[in-house]
Structure formats: structure tokens, C-alpha cells
From TrEMBL, chain A:
Taxonomic lineage: Bacteria, Pseudomonadati, Pseudomonadota, Alphaproteobacteria, Hyphomicrobiales
Domain of life of the organism encoding this protein: Bacteria
Coiled coil spans: none
Keywords in alphabetical order: ATP-binding, Cell membrane, Membrane, Nucleotide-binding, Repeat, Sugar transport, Translocase, Transport
Pfam family, one: ABC_tran
Designated name of the protein: D-xylose ABC transporter ATP-binding protein
InterPro entries linked to this entry: AAA+_ATPase, ABC_carbohydrate_import_ATPase, ABC_transporter-like_ATP-bd, ABC_transporter-like_CS, P-loop_NTPase
Homology family: Belongs to the ABC transporter superfamily.
Species the sequence originates in: Mesorhizobium helmanticense
Gene Ontology MF annotations: ATP binding; ATP hydrolysis activity
Transmembrane segments: none
UniProtKB/TrEMBL annotation, chain B:
GO MF, one example: transmembrane transporter activity
Name listed for the protein in its UniProt record: ABC transporter permease
Protein species of origin: Mesorhizobium helmanticense
Keyword terms, alphabetized: Cell membrane, Membrane, Transmembrane, Transmembrane helix
Family matches, as PANTHER family: ABC TRANSPORTER PERMEASE PROTEIN YPHD-RELATED-RELATED
Transmembrane segments: 70-88, 94-114, 121-141, 161-184, 213-235, 247-267, 297-313
Chief localisation class: membrane
CDD domains reported for this sequence: TM_PBP1_transp_AraH_like (cd06579)
Location in or out of the cell: Cell membrane
Membrane disposition: Multi-pass membrane protein
Amino acid sequence: MIEIVSPALKPMPAEFPRLAVAQVSKAFGANKVLRDVSFSVRAGEIVSLVGENGAGKSTLMHICAGSFPADGGAMALDGAAFRPASPKAARRAGVALALQETSILPDLSVGENLFFGDEPRNGLGFIRQKRLHEAADAQFAEMGFALKSTRMGSELSAAERQMVEIAKAIRLKPRLLILDEPTASLSSHETELVLAAMARLKAQGSAVIFISHRLDEVMEAADRAVVLKDGALTLDAERGAFSRDDLIRAMVGRTLADIFPARPADLAVAPVRLSVANAAAAGLKPLSFSLRAGEVVGFAGLEGQGQRPLARALSGITPFHGGEIAIDGAPIRLTSVARGIAAGIASIPDDRKHEGLALDLPIRMNVSLFALSRRSSWGWLAHALERRFAETARQRFAIRSTGIDQPVRQLSGGNQQKVVFARWLAETPKVLVLYEPTKGVDVGAKTEIYRLIGDLTAAGVAVVLISADMLELIGLSDRIHVLFEGAVTGTLARPEFSEEAIMRLAAGPEGVLNHAA
Amino acid sequence: MTAATYLDRLRPAGASLRAMALLLLLLAAFFISTRGFSSILLLDNIRQAAPLGVVVAGQALVLMMGRLDLSVGATASMANIVLCSIFNSDMANLVPAVAATLAAGTLVGLANGIMSTKLRIPAFLATLASSLIIAGLVVFFTNGSPRGAVPPAFRVITEGWLFGVAPYSALIWLVLLVALLLLVHFTMLGRKMILSGANVVAARHSGIPSDGLIILSFVLCSVLASIGGILLSAITGMASIGVGNNFTLDSIAAAVIGGALFAGGVFLPLGAMAGALILFFVQSLLYVLALPPAAKFIVQGLIIILALALANLKQERSQ
């Protein structure tokens, strides 16, 4: 991104949009990814590009950023024909793309990453370290990011890497900044900062396009929303002219009310399924809560407030210290995953690729573990049973694939997640622990997963839902506990649910958000 | 289950078939240069390839678990020394000699497995260290001049032919391969090993005791390396230092030619067999063509490149 040395924000004749895209189409082989898409971004405008996974958002943005050419259609940048031959050419023209997968070099400092290839140098060509770090820190301060320029790239969390990536793109003050899911790995607070940085760039006359799966931030930040469905434009509306429901309908053809299963009004009579009393873990203060059969209890909080230790302890990966855990009134010792499984706990990890699936093995082998281990006699593998089970699971969970022998790696994120669910739900568990169950999953698959959760609770399964997705927490839970620094700072009942109420509790007793702001 | 689905399940993987095709090409070249097919010559080569083949099977198992065993050569060499010294040319010592050899192999495997799981030492370093220690111990206990030999009656396991048509060593190899095939692809234990080899974290989080399974794979690998050493001893007949050392790299090369992946999760007994035979027939072919031994290494290297390039080409097309 070094090529844009002079951002050149010349005032342009108002009649030309910053970027105009006209009837762009693109096909990969027989697969038509974009069909005659037209939209435009004005200078000083933030446009949010929304759509399910596979709707063609990334392809469209890659065409704008010069990664590959369109098959048909045309683009214009400030009224001049825009046909970038490469990402480099696009950057030189002032179009910067910040990707979801970050390119932070682990052995360089944050500042060196920020200025990579464009470092301030002295007469001998050596990098002026002090100046570099000062400039980097100044930029982070301006953006409100709590990052130190001298830290090493390898020390950064996924969220921090993403922030550096965004800072890199913003530093160049591009004419058009394209952000591909900039907030996917960020906490609400960090998301606010990214949105603020976008707003500043907008005030300086740049145009911003950002892809997002989070509809709240689209509602909050976008001057205009553009929705793609199956490669075609289904909505292009100014702020105020669209609602969250409009977005969802344009994305999937359904409304929000249909996405979450209806919650039963009163569960107070159901028996207690899971009770946790005074159990602590590394990163988690002594915690007590209980779930009735058929209940969904949500755990909310900013990133890293004890969600991970809680999920791991409940699934038996790292044990609780002390305390008492009981299922259906019978105390259990949750010292290993196997014991958890034996007691009727199923747990869906947040990182399906690393912790949930053997990506290179077929669907069949990924889904059948528990179904087989319960029913294999004398240790022999029941191959026929495996195929039958896998075929049933593929239909029950609507796993879109070429067949049960397809390697899981070739499936989309949503379908991979359904494979994880299928493995764990071979038999109906007593307690289901969900940790970010729909991370990186498109709205269509999300809807299916939510419906599944609804069906399970109707069958008496108690669900622990640990999630950073506010909509999901509010839509699914019967009760929400809010975590802050490893302790529950408050509990909300269904009538009290709102994003504001959750955020207030998530900020902790002192209100860290107010401090940081 | 119908016969058709049963057969379908037994259909070998693409990588195994590619290795078999490569082997057939090589056999064609071999028999063209020896001017005519001879089943005796073929079986005799298989007989001599059996020691390597048994070691490759073990290596393939460890590779399936996403690990690597650099100690199989040293273990096979050690097996030769232990076997010959206890046998001392007397068939009466059969049971203690074989039992002690297999026990020593088991110990090596246990050590390798524990180092690579409980002590979290990367497997290739742990097994490199154990191979050095084994080689050192062998020299220490033998003072560098090992004594002993296997009795002639024992050599029947590699020199004898069942009914005069099938070499015993080839049968032993086949039985071991089938046993491993059954273990890995037809039992729950094997399924858990595959899952654990393909993604150890995911396996642990699904309650699979991965550490134990990894240790088991190392033990089986070392025991198979010891059996390879026993077969080799039956061929050479006497104790000598480092007879099996070539097995380390040859076994990795053969397993990889046979479709094994360093990433784990793949176990192809047919491929492992083809890989071992390919390496052996390359040697025989070069011998027939009277090429210098150095050519063996070059050809071996080229075959590995060819096998992997074919596999990658196939993958790209499917994506």
C-alpha cells in the first residue's frame, strides 16, 4: 500500500461519484458469481455491503481493488474509467483494500508493520526508529486504538492484528477504502473505534465500503446499504430508507422474526438440568448458575472476560477448580471431555477448523464418531451404520455437499459448522454448550442452526450459549448473564434484554468504556 | 450390506493406485531388461523386500498420526544384534531371542511415544535422539564387534517358500499389512487414531485419548521395525553393526511414495506396500542394468518427486 504517497484528495465535480460500478459480472467456470451488479459510492459516504457467504461480496470488492478483472461491465473512479490491472495499480489510483486475513509480520514491531515499505528514513537510508514509533503511536492515539508501536507483531491478538491492518489502510488516506469484514474478530468496544475511524475518513472526503455480517453496525454506520444475494443486487437504499428486517429480507428472503425460534413463555416449572455452584477456573472467578430443561442461558461480555475458560471448563477440556457441578441433580466430576460426554454434555467449539473438525477427512468420518462408538460391538467399526448415520445427518442438518464422502475442507463455513453439530448431536444430549456457534456462518446457515437450537430446547435440552453476537444472545436466550473480568456482573431476564443493557453490564462496575473514550 | 457396497468400501485410495501404477511401470522396465517375465524372480524380489516393507508399514502408521519416526533404522539394527546374540546359533533359544528382541523394540516405541506426547518433544527430534542412544548402546554392549548368529533353521522365515510357491517372508509381510489394515480401517480404535492423526486438538476435544493412541502407534512402529530387523537377520544370518540403518530414510521415502502425508490422517497399506516394492525394484533394476550404486539415490529421489508431483497435480484438478 506504499504506492499512494500523495492521497490527492482533490475536490471533484459533485456530479461524479467516487466509484461507479456498472453492470459488473463475473463467473468462475460455470459458477456465475456476479450478475450485472451496479452501484455507486460518493465521496464522503460510507457504504455497507451485506450478503450471505457466497453472495459475491468479496469477489465484487476484489474486482474494485484490481485483484482480478470483471468479465463484463465497467467501473469509473471520480468520473474517469477505472480498470485496475493489479492491486498495485488500484492502490496507486487511491483504492485500498484491507482484508480479513491479515498480513501482519510477526517479527516486526507494530510500527514497522504499519509503515512497512514506507518507513521514515535518514540520509543513509536507515529507518528512523524513534520517528517511526512516534508517528505510529500518534496514529493509534488519533484512532483511539490501545496499541503500542513498539510491540511485536507476534504478540498481537487476532483483534489487534485486525486493527493494525485497518490502521495500515487508513494511514494512506485513500480515495476509496474497502474493508472486508473489519470487525469480525473485534469486541464491541474495538468495533466502535473502527467505526469512528471510518467516520473520520469520511469527514476527510474519502469514500468507504465495508463488508459486514453484523447488522447493528450496518444500521449504525452506513450511509447506504447495498445487499447482494446470489450475485445479484437486491437492495440499494439510503440511510433511513431501510430497516434491519429489510436487510435480512434482501439477504435471505426472510424476516428477523422468522430467524429466531419462539421461546416458551414460562420454564420455571421445568426440572433443573445443569447446576454449577461456586466453580472457578483459570481466568474465571467462582461462578454459580443453573439451567432448567429446555432453557437457553446466554453469556455475554466484551472479548476475553472469561468466556473461553467457561466454555472449556463446561466441556471438560480444562477442569473447574472446586465447586460443584450436577446434572439432573446428580453431582458429576467434570475432569475430562470423556466424563463430560458420559454425563450428557455436548459442546460446540468456537474454532471449528482447529478444534472441531478433521478438515481433510470426509463428512462421514467427521460426523460419525459418537454414533459409532456407542454402537460398535467388540470394537469393530460398523461401516454400514456409519454410512446410514452420515446420510441421515446430512439430510437432517441440511449439510450442502456432494455426498458423505466429500472432505469437510471443501464445505462452506456454515456447512462445516453443521457437521460439528451433527457429530455432537448423534444422540440428544442433556446439556449443549455453544461457544460462538455461528461465528463466520452466513445468515442462511445461522437460521438453520437457530431452528435446530429451538428444536433441541423443545426436547428438553438445556443450552449454554456463550456468544459475542448480541442479536443472537437476545434472540435465543431466556436469561443472559454478563461476564466481566471472569465474574458475572449482572443477569438480565428476557423482558430486560437490549443491547444497551448488556453493554452497560459488560463495561464492568467502573465502566471501562467511559474511561477508554 | 450388499456385496457391492462391501467392495466399494475396499476400493483402494487414489494415492495407493498411483503408487501401484508406478510399481507396474517399474516392473515392466525390470522384466524388459531381464528379457522376459519370471514369477520366481518377482517373488524372490518381494521376499527380499519384506524386511523394508514391514518397517514401512510401521512408519506409515506413525505418519498417519502426524508424527515421524527417525529411529526405525537404529531399532532394526538393534533387533539384529539382540536376536543374534541371544540366539547364539542355537534353535533352542528361539523363544527368548525373539521375545527379547520384540520387548526391546516395545521399549524403544514406548520411549519415543512418551517423549513425543508427555514431554512434548517434536517426534522427529525425539526419535532422532533415541536412534543415537540406541546406536550408542549397541556399540557399548558389543564393544563394536558383535557376536552371534541366527541358527540355519531360523533362516527358513526368509529363505523358505510355502509349498515352494510363496516365500514365508512375503506371507509374514502380507499378514502384518492385513492386520494393520483391519486395525486402522475396521476398528473403533483405528478410527480414533485416524481422527487424532488428522487433527489432534479436535480429537482431544471430542474425548479421544490422543496421547495414548500416539504412544500406541510408536510402539507398533518400533515392534514392526524390530520384526523388520529379525527378517533382515534371517537374510544376513549374523550380527553386524548398523545393518538396518538404511531403513530410516527408505521407510519414509517408501511411505510417502505410497501416499502417506506428513500432515497425518492417511493410512494406505497398499500404498505402503507398493512404496517399499518400488524402492526395492529400483535397486534391482539398477543392478540388472549394471548402473553404479550412486544412481540408486538419484533415481529414488526422482521417484519421490514424481510420486508427490502426481499427487499434487491430482489435488489441484479436484479443487
